[in-house]
Amino acid sequence: MDYEFVLTIQGYAKFFILSIVFVVFYAYAYSIYKRQKTGERDFEKYSDLVLDDSFDAKPLEERK
């Protein structure tokens, strides 16, 4: 195996790994968007945790 072949394999491996990571993160972002639109979960109330971070704050969701 010469050096050019190793670099070629390394380039293809980086491309495929980055492609897989891109697809996984895009699918995750789409699932969050879809759950927000359908009303399954309200992600905007979680952003209030930054502002209301006191010990006495009421829970956002009831546990089952």
Number of helices: 2
Distance between the termini: 59 Å
Care to count the β-strands?
Answer: 0
* SSE ordering: HH
Structural class of the secondary structure composition? mainly alpha
- C-alpha geometry: elongated
Q: What's the rounded overall pLDDT mean?
A: 89
Biggest β-sheet: count, sense, barrel?
A: none
Keywords:
64 residues; 2 helices; mainly alpha
Structure, explained:
The chain is an all-alpha fold and 64 residues long. The chain has a domain at 17-53. It is 69% helix and 0% strand. It has two helices and no strands. The chain has helices at 3-38, 44-51. The model has no long low-confidence stretch (mean pLDDT 89).
What does this entry show, briefly?
This protein is mainly α and 64 residues long.
List the topology elements.
Blueprint (H helix, E strand, L loop, with lengths): L2 H36 L5 H8 L13
